[in-house]
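[step 3/7] inverse_fold.run input=structure_tokens len=145
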């Protein structure tokens, strides 16, 4: 019994007891359009130049133009999964919450057995904006829906 109480006492300070609240976000994926992301990319972007640099580095030929974002008030978050083998894959934002940090939760949808999909390379990603903050951003991607 003493061991259990001691263990509970050590774990207690590590629990996150802060309340989280939802924050507003905007999906601007369509403004960037289809992009062939050859690798996984997860980035918090504080300037148009940084987004344009990521696009140029990742897609050197035919680099798309970065969409307009008011970086004085907002910041962009880019999450790209990399190549997938069919049209059955997708990526959706489940929720974004804030406490001492920003928590971005996404869900990757994968094709189900028997689902009609087209076999071809696809590149699921999301480009979203949130209010500008100095807080650290943490990501959690839930897979295989």
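[step 3/7] decode complete -> sequence:
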């Amino acid at each position: 019994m003493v061991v259990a109480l001691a263990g509970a006492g050590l774990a207690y300070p590590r629990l996150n007891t802060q309340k989280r609240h939802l924050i507003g976000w905007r999906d601007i994926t369509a403004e960037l359009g289809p992009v062939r992301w050859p690798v996984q990319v997860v980035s918090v972007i504080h300037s148009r130049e940084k987004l344009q640099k990521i696009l140029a580095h990742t897609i050197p030929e035919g680099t798309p133009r970065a969409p307009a974002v008011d970086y004085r008030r907002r910041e962009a978050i880019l999450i790209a999964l990399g190549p997938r083998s069919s049209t059955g894959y997708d990526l959706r934002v489940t929720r974004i919450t804030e406490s001492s940090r920003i928590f971005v939760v996404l869900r990757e949808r994968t094709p189900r057995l028997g689902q009609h999909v087209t076999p071809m390379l696809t590149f699921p990603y999301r480009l979203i904006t949130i209010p500008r903050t100095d807080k650290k951003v943490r990501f959690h991607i839930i897979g295989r829906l």
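[step 4/7] annotate
The first strand starts at residue 21 and ends at 22.
The beta strands are 21-22, 26-27, 41-45, 74-80, 84-86, 90-98, 102-109, 119-122, 125-131, 137-142.
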